[in-house]
Amino acid sequence: MKTDIQSILDKLGIEANNAAFSTGNDWGGSLNSETINSFSPVDGNKIASVGVASQKDYEGVILKAQEAFLFWKTVPSPKRGDIVRQLGDALRKNKEALGTLVSYEMGKSLQEGFGEVQEMIDICDFAVGLSRQLYGLTMHSERPSHRMYEQWHPLGIVGIISAFNFPVAVWSWNAALALVCGNVCIWKPSEKTPLTGIACQKIISKVLADNDMPEGVSNLIIGDKSIGELMTNDIRVPLISATGSTRMGKAVAAAVGARLGKSLLELGGNNAIIISEHADLDMSLIGAVFGAVGTAGQRCTSTRRLIIHENIYDAFKAKLVKSYGQLRIGDPLDQNNHVGPLIDVAAVTAYLDSIEKCKAEGGNFVVEGGVLKGENYSSGCYVKPCIAEVKNDYKIVQHETFAPILYLIKYKTLDEAIAFQNGVPQGLSSAIMTLNLREAEHFLSNQGSDCGIANVNIGTSGAEIGGAFGGEKETGGGRESGSDAWRAYMRRQTNTINYSHTLPLAQGIKFDL
Ligand code: UN1
């Protein structure tokens, strides 16, 4: 049965023409010539229009957020956690509708759209627990009758710049933590997926209003790079959390660094799986194929390279080629399909360009790529997942192309495989498939993977929210979601209290009047 998109839009409060910004229940910014139209890559249809915020709109949002922060930071953290719990409950109720809109606006499979909303629910649950923690340490003073400890305070306004590929989950990783920590948020979603942003803003705004919270705690602002630049250059936004390309991240880091602000960057990956001769090849196949073609290769954790031991190279390649022959490409809302479209025709051009470059460098395509044509592919965004045999040092292999292109590299020794794995500018996710304990532990040791995420017998994508998420080198060094990633959203204060009758100085310094 064809999904009734209109009823999903109605349920989520998406209109034909939507406002450019929101501070909660207040929406503003009229539609002008600078409207963004959201087209679905699924069928090429225009879903709705959204206004673009002006500099004046941006100023208004900042003022509301500053005012809201003065109140929100006085709400006890467990109470803030309870509001985030209610956000999680609202997401549970809206999982089907929001997951479907994610799938339709972004193009990922319906299962992955639901998975993304589940990831939002999970981070809300995590943040609720955190709201009763946010622990600081206590330490022993060198002076008698003195007490020392540290505590964590909120920063103020957290600016969230998110990408099209996880249009809602990445916002929630940031927002759920930032909010329990006592911050207020301003979110600039990708201009490629503004409607899922509007849907989330409607959901959270209702929860905040039901709890009598003021406008300005959770804000949304629609625009392109120029709105992002207003945020990154704005001293009133102490933390910018940005997800996207390495090129974008470098610009954000430079602007935020120039004003000594904080940035939390989650940028490109070039993730590899090492397939050892000691691997379970059936398990490896699922991890590799899901990693490479899931979200049509548009996750920052997508598997881009397979580094395969020479003894099993031909056998594993044959399995891969066979499984690619069975992939069903098409409407992602139809659960029979494995792979949906790329986000837009610009992404298709980048995919074709990378294939050409790979061939020019000597890449041997064992599964050919290409753009699918015909009635079912009318958006022009559907491409064939492809596989090429390459050398790790090809320029194109060093580059992250956001598309389902998988590179095969042959290795002889584990150290050589690890050198290939680490021999790219990015450092997000990595994995080894092996049943050999020595190999697995070596890969995880400090002589092994240099990435922020290193897995054994699991692919590179699909991290759980409980761990800190992010990577090294050109991935930007940030950590989001689980573990102690919350610390990025707070400032640390060290407190020393003297309850003695004298004022002894540290380091034994004598100073008598
Ligand atoms: C991203 O692609 O920006 O680990 C995030 C994963 C997901 C998150 C990906 N949980 O693949």
UniProtKB/TrEMBL annotation:
Where along the chain is the active site annotated? 266
Domain Aldehyde dehydrogenase, first and last residues per copy: 33-494
Q: Is the NAD keyword given for this protein?
A: yes
**Signal peptide interval:** none
UniProt cross-references to CDD domains, sorted A to Z: ALDH_F7_AASADH
Q: Which UniProt keywords apply?
A: NAD, Oxidoreductase
**Which EC number applies?**
1.2.1.3
Family membership: Belongs to the aldehyde dehydrogenase family.
Subunit description: Homotetramer.
Protein name, entry field? aldehyde dehydrogenase (NAD(+))
Q: Which organism is it from?
A: Pedobacter mendelii
Q: Which lineage do the record's taxonomy fields give for this organism?
A: Bacteria, Pseudomonadati, Bacteroidota, Sphingobacteriia, Sphingobacteriales
Q: What is the primary gene name for this protein?
A: pcd
